[in-house]
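Practice set, problem 2.
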Amino acid sequence: MPTILVVGATRGLGASLANAYKSDPNNHVLATARSADPPPNTKNLTYIPGIDIATPDAGKKLLDFVHTKSISQIDVVIITAGYFATESLKEPSFEAEEKMYRTCVIGPTILVTTLANDSDLLNSKSKVIFVSSESGSITLRHESEGGGNYGHHASKTALNMSAKLLSLDLKERGVAIAVVHPGFMRTELTRGVGFDKFWDEGGAVTPDVAAKSLVEWISTFDISKTGEYWAPRGPADIGTADAVLGPKDQLPTPLQLPW
């Protein structure tokens, strides 16, 4: 029975991924929640309460839980936890940027290193997927979209670098690591920063649709692609793709993204 760990699994893409994986009775799904009172467990989905990835002890708390369940191997780790606050040249935010870095890059990096340093929990059968965004690609930034949102873009870029470095550290062990842009989604996160006005024009999909594409892509991902950056749903929702990469209708799906 494969063990799937979804970090940040109570809403948005994380919740959809947990539900998608639990639909296969052969999977054992572990789903983290910040709340001390997460949704009820089901036959093959177990919630791990009190895991806030932006805190220093998230990894230790997660390991403690895993040990109590006598889990010896995790087959797939997907880290979806994120935070997004808008900024502009006139209105940057030290506090918001700090929270984005803690949530989007520091926490995920430390959590994966914690798992990797615990015996054989991550091994040659393991895949680690960092949910990033095309917004973390320096190459894809273009004057047509302008600047701003410094913490959002830069924290995703930093996550991409951490994932690349972890892929080098863990390649000899056979642990496959990827960074993905799951697609532009119709979530409370994007609505909360006013991006719902771009949903239709930008081709935003529901988290369930994005999760289905991501689960399918993960099933084909292996060590031969470790350390790479992918858009499983292709270029359709990447606003600068035409300007930077060429006509979208000539680009493949899935699409490997430039750093």
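Problem 2, part (b): a different protein.
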Amino acid sequence: MEGQKRRGGGEEDMSHVIHKVPAGDSPYGRAKHLQLVEKDPEMAIVWFWKAINAGDRVDSALKDMAVVMKQQDRAEEAVEAIKSFRHLCSKQAQKCGRIEEQIELLKQKLRMITLGEAFNGKTTKTARSHGKKFQISIQQETSRILSNLAWAYMQQNNYDAAEIVYRKAQTIEPDANKACNLGLCLIKKGRFDEARAVLEEVLHRTYPSSVDGKIISRAEELLREIELQPAVCPLEVGSSIKEEIMERLDLVMNEWAPFRSKRLPIFEEISP
């Protein structure tokens, strides 16, 4: 019996190593054990709350709780939790929380567009900038939201997701500013030849907005940055990971639309 107890205790101790669960009986450690070992997400959320209220690794507890909530289809509750308790986290964690919140809000906007709710079922809406009114199409709005989503991924150093979302946005409504951002993303991944090709398109006035002097200057600055980079092997993401990212993006665009939704023709073009 003693041998069995020792083996059982050893297995329990090893779970901390195998599942990267914090050792000890702290609220956060208990929450992680429930999440990863016992596979009880609802109780894990309860203990994450206890960890936050007790001040036990608040940064990690809030982030992990939000992940579990999203997995349980409680994304809105996760966003509210981040908003309410972000002030308890470190400055770096607060910044990350704001980016996560921004990403979630942008995804919600995409869902509204795919359901035909953003423009009240219309293909355009009236917008205002610098006191002037103008019409914006669904294509333009979708591309703008995707561009903002890609930039948020860039802030997280998630360059694989950012690249794919930028390319998606460019297929809908290409412009020079997004091309520059895509070029920067490719530079961050060490794919200098591809970045150079994208930025040279800006300099060659391929896009209507290429006439903007600021954008031209930025493209030239990024090209100079490429020339200063040492020759390195590019960080290429595997094809399976690319497919997974694209699949997730397509889910954002499509999975909330019922079979008989009021989807507009543009979304047949967005979907691959």
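Answer key, part (b): The first helix runs from residue 2 to 18. The longest strand covers residues 124-129.
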